[in-house]
Predict the 3D structure of the following.
Amino acid sequence: MPELRKDPVIGRWVIISTERGRKPSSFIPVPKRREASLCPFCPGHEDSTPPEVMAYRAPGSEPNMPGWSLRVISNKYPALIIEGALNREPKGIYDRMNGIGAHEVIIETPEHAHDMVDMKVDEIRDVLWAYRERMIDLQRDIRFKYIQIFKNHGEEAGASLEHSHSQLIATPIIPKRVLEKLEGSRRYFEFKERCIYCDIIRQELGENERIVKDYDAYISFEPFASRFPFETCIIPKAHQSSYLEISKSDFYVLASCLKDTLIRLRIALNNPPFNYILHTRPISNESHDYFHWHIEIIPKLTKVAGFEWGSGFYINPTAPEDAAAFLRGIDVNEFEKMNAKKSN
Amino acid sequence: MPELRKDPVIGRWVIISTERGRKPSSFIPVPKRREASLCPFCPGHEDSTPPEVMAYRAPGSEPNMPGWSLRVISNKYPALIIEGALNREPKGIYDRMNGIGAHEVIIETPEHAHDMVDMKVDEIRDVLWAYRERMIDLQRDIRFKYIQIFKNHGEEAGASLEHSHSQLIATPIIPKRVLEKLEGSRRYFEFKERCIYCDIIRQELGENERIVKDYDAYISFEPFASRFPFETCIIPKAHQSSYLEISKSDFYVLASCLKDTLIRLRIALNNPPFNYILHTRPISNESHDYFHWHIEIIPKLTKVAGFEWGSGFYINPTAPEDAAAFLRGIDVNEFEKMNAKKSN
């Protein structure tokens, strides 16, 4: 059973993951070999993953068999496990609880070699729709307070399998960084009676220095205080505190926007490793109207070193204005055309 | 001029570093070559670094010439620069100020091939003493609120030169992570009227499950809620809020303790990349008696991925109790003996 432990000074929770238990010797680097024929996420290998939680499938195809276009499974090496009670308890001055939660993998495509930039907008829309479906299902579980959806692309960004996938972790507490964002936006709202993210969007559109692209219902931009070079944010222009407020028709627009942004980063930085994270309001009856959902994309270009770990203070060697100008100049159509030619 | 920018939602400051300005193309990885004969930190190459701020030298040797055993210089590519005024100002809803601060490098040894584990305890004591001297000097500058001292070892941990060195960054604001530690320990103190770190030490010594070694005036241990495998903390048993409270004679003990801990990590994890960070109280007239200085050592063994970035919630695959047991079992004398043989 994994364990949740709380840092007694700053209150940050940590998952001590026994399911992923690693002996000291296992940290000595071993070069990895990758073979598509052995990929557990490829069609025909459904039996090498846990059974599917849901899938989008061709009519008449059987669960856990080929015929799917998207597949959601439980993580084979879960950070948190679904069965059990929390049993929150003290241990002297410390706090711990059982590592209860959900940890799922969204296999985005049956094509081993397709990254998100190679997928059709329809397929990306389905991925975004699957996020929604899993969130709606999991928020019925009263043990969960937050659902974090994220994607690791590339080994340097923490992806252990290259077949394109996203992950979902439902946690029994609201994570610290989410609390900080909620707290910051709540304080602003109390003071100004306006959503801080709406004000940011207004200022960004007005200054037009950090906007990468103004889509219809969304913008992508480089945040004013970006921690990392080419850190990019995608946010709906209309005020929505939850990802679940997106209208059905807007999913296609959001998918185009995400694809466009990822293509720009791919070309600008030569297929960089990256993480993206969906920030939405927690599961709760409380109103979080001061919050505004968004997607944060972090290319992994610099190393996080001692100063950053110690201070929480980041050194970003590329001005967001320069990164935005560079990304605006990328010819996305050229990439799409070449990709279309390749697959013909 | 570098710029400090504040995240409007969570209040985290970021350094937008123009001196280190990097174009998008410069992020495409280029394999690095290293040659000791070209190392700017080696004796004889003093003219390829900025002039020294201080040095420990053989009697009669000239500044910025060979003859030193330790040398402190300004960073050639500083994240923050020393000359100028802060000019804190709004930019619409955002906050910015000039990137004023000090960024120094402590070259720990003239020997290119000596890591801290290869150095004599006397030499490490001198490094720790140099930290103290630089802190005392810099805290006279009223623009500075905090002095962060840290070390990056290995390329994966952010070291761009392999010659053993530490760094110091003095900042005009108290960094967020430092504030969190201060705030957490202050709240505990108000509630319990005891230092939380003193209570942690008491519990760790009592349980004796996570202690790596009990030195005389210090202990090294694996924190209960370690974020990373083999995260290790060195802390004085006696209550001291500031690093500057260490008695002169204790510097040798601290140096032995640091060396012993680094040797254990070196052997257990086959020379892992790591960061260490000195956490001490801020520069201020205010009493910070609730705080307790310590050194945090973080081996770089796992990748920080989307979940961690999004949630601030870490997944640690090695229980601190297992890591401590493993480190306790290391034969430090054996390493010392082999090292002595090598250098004969």
About this structure: Residues 118 and 339 of chain B are 7 Å apart (CA to CA).
